[in-house]
Amino acid sequence: MLLDQATAEQLKALESELTAEYNAILGKNLSLDVTRGKPSAEQLSLSDAMDGILDGSYKAGDGTDTRNYGGIDGIAEAKQLGSDLMEVPTANIVVGGNSSLTLMHQTMMTAYHFGLTGADSAWKNIDTPKVICPVPGYDRHYTVCEQLGIEMVTVPMTASGPDMDAVEALINADESIRGMWCVPKYSNPTGVVYSDETVERIAKLGQIAHKDFRVFWDNAYAVHDLIDNPPQLASVFELTTKHGTENSVLQFASTSKITFAGAGVAFTAASSENLAGLKKFLGACTIGPDKVNQLRHAKFLPSREALMSHMKKHAQLLQPRFDAVLSALSKAFDGSDLGSWETPVGGYFVSFDTRPGCAKATVKLAAEAGVKLTPAGATFPYGNDPEDRNIRIAPSVPSIEEVVGAMEVFVVCVKLASVRQALA
Ligand code: PLP
């Protein structure tokens, strides 16, 4: 049934039917959680062989004793791993500690306070530097901006990436736009892969934007495919080279969802000018990253082939969980006007848009029925989803049976929230 076409009587009948279904769920005393975008214990165990892999040999290929201080930009073997992961030349890579979010924070802080290309380029030199945030997006990107006092301007995500007409219009209209967040592959949370045209338009932004404008290209899900023959993301590195905009994009990735989420290795890829600015900042923070961990990662994942075959093992664990989410959504909502979603073939999330004004009520109903969902609004800057529509579902941690159970509840909650709102 289409809610928009239902009569008041039909809505009332539906409401009582759904309330009965919901009350039956309440009686089950469920405790399920689909909030966490992190690997399951089974996924983490895929990398347990890293433990002890060095077997007492701590020397890198060039003789560096990885146990000691130094090597601010990482050992050569780890740069190779970064290159295999990000498909960028090793010369353009810096290897950090365990978290790409840290590198993104440090890079944005450098851009803001010190300038990536010298003091003149510091964003703080203007009153209100602004960063473009495609929405829905990754909440921790927003936290970085909020902490640094950088104003966020939103643009909608589409099925092919950020609405580039909106992005270009903002940049053309406002000289104080200094940056943009992007999760180009299996975007958090929509699961969208940016189209070739979108990537090329992003690579060309450096031609129209202020010279200190930087895209923060967070490729957190670069190799996190769920299917064979996955979509290919165009190379922003090659496209910025083609368009002479090398300084306008900094890329980030990590092994957090490849090996150990709390003990992986993170990478930044950028032009030599940008890397010089970042390394100057890093050099004031640390005498060097954890090179022992870098070496054991390089031993564990010695080639692109090894990396991709390791990722297939993750896919085997994740795919049935995504199937459970997507088939529940299809069964409940195909052909209805109750919600919309993308069908991701990689990454960690499924993003569901309810009818306007129904996301918070859905999350609340689900919580009361024992199913924890990410708070509505979390995928928008300042936690404010102006249309109150978006809900992020993260199925990696629960068992398949738990995902199925959570989706049964989710579906009823979406329907009930929608019908109650239509009646109100
Ligand atoms: N970027 C995105 C888009 C993410 O979804 C996440 C984690 O969920 C991260 C970065 C965190 O990466 P890291 O563990 O390397 O800090």
UniProtKB/TrEMBL annotation:
InterPro entries: AspAT_Ic, PyrdxlP-dep_Trfase, PyrdxlP-dep_Trfase_major, PyrdxlP-dep_Trfase_small. SUPFAM superfamilies: PLP-dependent transferases (SSF53383). It holds the Pfam family Asp_aminotransf. It comes from the Bacteria. Keywords: Aminotransferase, Transferase. Transmembrane segments: none annotated. GO terms for molecular function: transaminase activity. Signal peptide: none annotated. This is Aminotransferase class I/II-fold pyridoxal phosphate-dependent enzyme. The lineage of its organism: Bacteria, Pseudomonadati, Pseudomonadota, Gammaproteobacteria, Cellvibrionales.
